[in-house]
Amino acid sequence: MKQITLALFSILFIGIQAIGQIAPDKYYIQFTDKNDSPYSIDNPQEFLTQRAIDRRNNHDIAIVPNDIPVNITYLQGVADIGVDLLFATRWFNGVTVYTNDPSLIDLILDLPYVESALKLIDRENHGKKVFFENESYGDIFTDNDLKSAQSTSTLDYGFAQGQIEQINGIPLHDEGFQGQGMVIAVLDGGFQGVVEHPVFDSLWANGQILGNKDFVHVNGDVFTESSHGKSVLSCMGANQPDEMIGTAPKASYWLLRSEDVLSENVIEEYNWVSAAEFADSVGADVINSSLSYIDFDMPQWNHPYSDMDGNTAVATIGADIVASKGILVHNSAGNSGGGSWPWNGSPADGDSVFSIGAVDIADNRAGFSSIGPTFDGRIKPDVMALGAGTTVAYGIENVGPGNGTSFSSPVMAGMSTCLWQAYPEKSMMEIQQAIKESASRFNNPDNLMGWGIPNFADAWSILTTIERKSSDDEPMLHVFPNPFQNSLSLEIESHISQEAQIECLSVTGNLIFSQAVHLQTGSNRHVINNFKQLVKGVYLLRVVTNNRVFVQRIVKQ
Question: 347 and 301: one domain?
């Protein structure tokens, strides 16, 4: 017999427990199958945008049955019982519904294609969000002396320069990688003030706000109830020179509300999944989620530490699925690091989710930043960015310091987007790995700061480093250190004896110097000491062999 359950479920709905009649509100309805669907994986353009299809094709990701939408006949059958449909999830093959009449759920359970009904809310509690409790804002910035010393960058970052310098992202921006052509989906609790705040003027003027959708209220207005998403978005998309420029000022954005800021209920994890599915369907490259789920207004839903195993919480399962579609998911590690439950929450515990912790401007871990390990022993967070004193937009037209992993996550997400823009052929896992390898604790990661604070110029170089083995006469090239100061070492592995030319060029192609070398069979090391008089900046190192040219970007510090 089909049952209503309060037990947290796995995708297979293991361990369902029956309960009696309870107060009506919101439920999750699980369907049995997708039989007789009008959709087919052979015609994905009927339910995915071309951009979403292209992402899959570009990274050899197959379109599979969980991509197919929920059967519309099943949805209509549930609606005909008399409940209000909220949001469907194709990955879980179900739908959330609302009803004031609990007897209707019994009728829904009698439908042949309904497997079970899960009670999500039986009361409203308008308390403060658990995740936001340790987040705060300081006084607005008014003193220009608080701005960092002017850098050599072509961009005037204003008060936000420090958070980009800390992760050495300025070289990517100076090279022109500022997010152009990339799409970021922002999952949050509301975007009040985004229309009016001047740091977003260029986003609106240039059509970089692609759209918005509310997954809390059907046909709701995402620009109400909370301005949290405004502060989060500013860390990436702000573009007001001399005031604040974010880490991806030229990316495009979808603004998606999945978080109900007036309560804390497990339905928000289902909202998160539905929003992530939407982000996938419209072709997003990156997701930033400054949200975390641990405790709820209904205590029976609270996550024990054992749930943080990367495979149990609903939002975590959804986050790993969206990552499998080729999307790079950034999530706040959480703000409970100083409490009795200090671990990363959901969905940051996912093994494919990039969990971002918080540091201060002196590179020290913020005390509130949630820690690892996950219950199954994996290191979390993954990496760190400025989350204590992050410059964010708030109020009508001001910027000031914000505290929380809500802000370190978008700082990282925007910069990761720019890195991926530079290497679109790389997979999201390759981008993650390069960022980790560039980070300050790559050789000794721990559960306080993960792999540490990334260096995006180094991550850029890691992805550029050429190690080719496609034919016997192609050398393998490794350049280090990069960034460098006065000298640079090259290791070149050549399978034949040959002559080569090592050249340094400006980014506009002007030759700065050239040096002829002979490559012996085997390993060759060359040290170049000609860089002492070279001004700081980005250059191109070119190695020309008998039948091939290798080019790598190098950064002089």
Answer: yes
Among 95, 121, 147, the domain boundary falls at 121
| Residue 126 domain flag | no
CB of 461 closer than 8 Å to CB of 479: yes
pTM above 0.70, yes or no: yes
What digits encode the pLDDT tens for the residues 234-261? 999 999 999 999 999 999 999 999 999 9
Question: Is residue 141 located within the same domain as residue 50?
Answer: no
Domain contains 130: no
Range of the domain at 504: 465-556
Tally of domains in the chain: 3
Q: Hunting for tokens 């205590």 — which residue is that?
A: 299
The secondary structure element, H or E, covering residue 456 is: helix 456-464
Average pLDDT, the chain: 88
pLDDT at residue 540, rounded to an integer: 80
Handedness of CA 103, 104, 109, 112 (dihedral sign): positive
Q: Which residues of 147-184 are buried (b: 16+ CB within 10 A; e: fewer)?
A: beeeeebebbbbbbbbbbbbbbbbbbbbbebbbeebbb
Q: How confident is the model over 480-520, as pLDDT tens digits?
A: 888 888 888 888 888 888 999 898 877 556 688 889 999 98
Neighbours of 347 (CB within 10 A): 33
Looking at the fold, whether 255 and 303 belong to one and the same domain comes out as yes
- 8 Å CB contact between 149 and 157: no
Q: How far apart are CA 531 and CA 529, in angstroms?
A: 6
Q: Is residue 162 included in any domain, yes or no? A: yes
DSSP string, 496-544: S-EEEEEEEEETT--EEEEEEEEEPSEEEEEEE-TTTTPPSEEEEEEEE
